[in-house]
Specification:
Largest sheet: 6 strands, mixed
Strand content: 15-25%
Oligomer: single chain
CATH architecture of the largest domain: 3-Layer(aba) Sandwich
Shape: globular
Number of domains: 4
Number of strands: 18
CATH superfamily of the largest domain: Vaccinia Virus protein VP39
């Protein structure tokens, strides 16, 4: 709840003072690069660029970039670009009509994607602030409008008649092309797979291994054989083997067929997760989906209708609390507690598809907490939390830095910062949150084994915080370095 005094008289808001001098790329710009929305084939324009830090850093990375700002760069022309960034602008414009026009004009300039970001209300912004219009006036005499995440999406969708895609808290991508939007959505729910290794290389496989490599990569990515025209190097393969099916039989002679079957199964689940979550929007007709998604659906399910029916059945089953609880309890992945399942974000894709859909119900609208380390599934109430533990890999017992809890009944977000807490919660038994294929799994497991043998983990209630754990180590005359326990000389 915000606490402030009321103001009815017009104020002279100094908007330019809201511009931040950054030392690195802003998060919206960074996400555009990470998701390859901004790449060597696209151009970038920063609408309301402030001091121009993003423009300079993006240009330095070799991309074509420009920016305009009414105060700092007023003479730069408004230029159309593939990617237009409206970064934390909506929340500093106090005039409702002008705010709306800024959003519409930025959209007009975007040929492919508009990135919209704004401040999101995640906790109390302090008392003594001055209410003005639909926001507040800060101590620096700037205006701030704090949106709820769902409110921000609804505002963007309403003004632009679009379907904005959340990529993080307070950050949305708005696509011009529906097919590109849905391909992006589907990509976000695609699990990672690796190409099966060659086990018994046959003479024929060895002779054509270089030519077959693109086909192996394609099947790894999509879980199915390509259709004609879908693989750039198809001419060479078809000239030698006649069909993709015959070429793939040569690959199967040298690799484990069960591994390819597992990839296909994972990809079919990815499609179901994606389709289940499209139920929250106006689900597109099949002909409006990207061609590669249509081919995936045909290969795995036969018809779009059948795929949607299976996906919807899974989604609607989550309306029963017992289904979520049972899925959590039966999960072979993660740390089980009486009222929750904790998993590392790296294993989200390996979860039961019901839990993947359940997590997607939160992240599809809210986005995940930046740098989230763990995801907490509550088994007794419809909630999910994202937890950030800095240095998870390097700190034997990392402390909780930030938590973001989402109530799935109304999508309300509760955000808590532990960074300034003197005695924050810490993690134990890190290997329980991950799977054996995690690079540091053995190191984590060996540390836990040492700690158990020395009785360090016996009193769970007293070692859950940094101070409690430190006291335990002192009582046992040990210290931990590099994920190993060392006895101290008395």
């Amino acid at each position: 709840m915000l606490h402030f005094s009321l103001q009815s008289e017009p104020l002279e808001i100094e908007r330019h003072r809201a511009a931040i001098v950054r030392t690195d790329l802003s998060r919206p710009a960074r996400l555009a690069i990470e998701y390859a929305i901004l790449n060597n084939n696209t151009t970038f324009f920063d609408y309301g660029c402030g001091h121009g830090g993003d423009v300079e850093r993006i240009t330095a990375r070799g991309y074509i970039s420009a920016g305009w700002d009414p105060y700092y760069r007023p003479n730069t022309p408004h230029t159309s670009a593939d990617i237009v960034n409206l970064g934390y602008i909506l929340n500093v414009i106090e005039d409702l009509n002008e705010r709306r026009q800024a959003l519409k004009h930025a959209w007009e300039l975007a040929r492919k994607v508009l990135i919209v970001s704004a401040q999101v209300l995640i906790n109390d912004r302090g008392s003594g602030q001055l209410a003005y219009a639909d926001g507040i006036v800060t101590r620096r005499n700037t205006f701030q409008k704090y949106y709820e995440q769902e409110e921000l999406k609804n505002y963007i969708d309403d003004v632009l008649n679009a379907d904005a895609v959340p990529v993080a808290l307070g950050i949305y991508f708005v696509f011009r092309d529906e097919q590109e939007r849905e391909s992006f959505r589907a990509l976000r729910f695609r699990s990672r797979t690796t190409t099966p290794r060659v086990r018994i290389p046959s003479k024929r496989f060895e002779d054509y291994q270089e030519q077959l490599a693109p086909l192996m990569a394609f099947v790894t990515e999509r879980g199915r054989l390509p259709v004609k025209g879908e693989l750039p190097s198809q001419a060479e393969i078809l000239a030698e083997f006649g069909t993709f099916s015959r070429a793939f039989k040569v690959i199967l002679q040298a690799t484990d067929e069960a591994e390819w079957d597992a990839i296909a199964y994972r990809r079919s689940l990815d499609i179901l997760v994606y389709l289940a979550l499209t139920q929250f929007n106006q689900r597109l007709t099949l002909n409006k989906l990207a061609p590669e998604i249509r081919r995936d659906i045909k290969a795995f399910f036969g018809t779009y209708q059948e795929a949607c029916e299976v996906a919807d059945k899974m989604l609607f089953s989550l309306g029963k609390p017992s289904v979520v609880a049972k899925s959590c309890q039966q999960s072979k992945i993660g740390k089980h507690l009486p009222t929750a399942l904790y998993i590392h974000v790296s294993v989200l894709e390996e979860l039961d598809p019901l839990l993947r859909i359940y997590e997607g119900c939160a992240s599809r609208t809210i986005g995940r907490l930046e740098n989230a380390t763990l995801v907490k599934f509550y088994t007794e109430q419809p909630k999910i939390s994202y937890l950030f533990y800095p240095n998870f890999d390097t700190d034997p017992h990392p402390a909780l830095h930030t938590s973001m809890q989402i109530d799935l009944r109304d999508l309300k977000v509760s955000y808590r910062d532990y960074d300034t807490v003197a005695n924050p919660p810490i993690l134990h038994r890190k290997e329980t949150f991950i799977t054996p294929n995690y690079p540091l799994y053995e190191q984590f497991a060996l540390l836990t084994q040492q700690e158990k043998e020395l009785g360090l983990l016996k009193h769970k209630s007293s070692i859950g915080t940094r101070e409690g754990w430190q006291k335990c180590l002192e009582e046992h005359s040990v210290e931990i370095r590099d994920h190993r326990v060392f006895l101290l000389k008395k």
